[in-house]
Prior knowledge:
Blueprint: H1 8-71, H2 75-79, E1 87-96, E2 99-108, H3 124-230
Antiparallel strand pairs: 1-2
Helix pairs in contact: 1-3
Amino acid sequence: MSEVPPTRMNQQVFKGKKKAAESGHKLLKKKADALKVKFRDYAKMIAETKGNMSTDATTAFFSLTQAEYAAGNFKQKVAEGTLNARVRVGAGIDNVAGVKLPVFTIYETGGVADNQSLGLVGGGKKIVAVREKFKVFLTQLIKLASLQTSFVTLDEAMKVTNRRVNALENVTIPKIQSVLDYIERELDELEREDFTRLKLVQGKKQDDMKENVVVKNTTDKMKNLDINKDKDITATFDAQDDEDVVF
């Protein structure tokens, strides 16, 4: 604090800094609260999606077992196909309180399904059911991946925001306030010194004025005495006015 000159201008500068820091603290606090609400929502959706995935996975693999029982082992025939993708994953951005969260979406390419001849001998309905079950399971899997990726990104953003809030609340604002207190103390001390100096100057002036008055009075008295000494006392008397004295 000693390197900060205690002047009115610096006081105004640090008041502006404090106001800006407090405004930033309020905005970051609101941002942290919004991120917490979104964080809880994502945690709830992840729990629900995982619960649904458990059921969908069980249903999909049980349907696969039924299809293999009805149509035989067709995994080799599927692997020998061209394996053209019928669905793809697209990436998007969701903005939450200034934080960009990745969002994954599933969309169909419009491609024709391979191995249309599977299940001609038997089990065709079961194979179609397997496709539909695994498509639902894949949708849930992509949704879970999107939620968990956003959840991790949101968690990191929350940590950064909370660190900034704590830094402003516990370091920056108290430091600025301590500088303002130091400047205010120094300015008060300067004002007291100026007031004491003015009183001393005023008292000195009054003493000088009194001394000047005393000197002036003394000088006037001395002048009057000198005039009286130089004056002839007998000049004020007229001898003709006196009566004759008879002995």
